Amino acid sequence: MIKNTHIKTLLALVCILAAAIVCSALLPAKAGAEDWKFSSSINYDTGKYGTPDRTDSVYIPFTLKRYYDNANVSVTAPYLRQSSTGQVTRVGGIPVRVGRGSGVAVTSAESGLGDILVRGAYTLKREGPKSFDLALAGKLKLPTADENKGLGTGEMDEGVGLEFSKEVTPRWSLLSDVYYTIIGVPDGMGFNSSQVSLDVGFYRPLRENLALTVLYETSSAIVDGNPDPRSISGTLSYSAPGGIQFSGGLMLGISDGSPDIGISAGFNRKF
Description:
Blueprint: H1 4-26, E1 36-47, E2 55-67, E3 71-84, E4 87-91, E5 94-97, E6 104-105, E7 110-113, E8 116-127, E9 132-142, E10 157-169, E11 172-182, E12 194-207, E13 210-219, E14 230-239, E15 244-253, E16 261-270
Antiparallel strand pairs: 1-2, 1-16, 2-3, 3-7, 3-8, 4-5, 4-6, 8-9, 9-10, 10-11, 11-12, 12-13, 13-14, 14-15, 15-16
């Protein structure tokens, strides 16, 4: 028998594909030849997340992004590998400890397709080519990860937010995003049904083709009584000849609700 969640997922996929076709046909493409971007990265993090057990995660997303004059839309299909000695379920990108019988006891490692992410943004205000940008963004998490392996909840999440950037000087730009997400809560799990997240930081060119992005990120806890995830991250990006950009990052958790440490390496190319 087909589950209601699977029916909802199929309907959502149909709606998304239809919307993408309409957007591609009606919206004017961004000026220039580079209207698309493909990106991928390898992300490793480890932490206890306020529990007695350590969880190690490897997350490898593959993202295709389409640019328009005042908007963009992207689809991300990730591979996820997660290992722990406790019972965990991945909620909102964070492994969460669940009670006996509410998740999967991961004794070694589980891996597979993660939750597919669909995201879109529309520029509300732009002053100059780089000086000020404000965009309205929306995101949808499709429950494609296997909930029986603890790789997801098996439920859909929907979020809306604002994304802001401001060039203070030619060498410094301020960045900030705020999101409100409705969390799909499986039956029998005591997760909060919504989450507020915020990040703030800066972007700074260091030399030709090399730049640094630093972000402080925080969000409300998924489970009451658990610490709010808080972390600080730094990412170096290098623009190589041929239109390929490489990046490497380091993330440090500053609360028990975040990974202790995370590292990443990736690339993107516009075409």
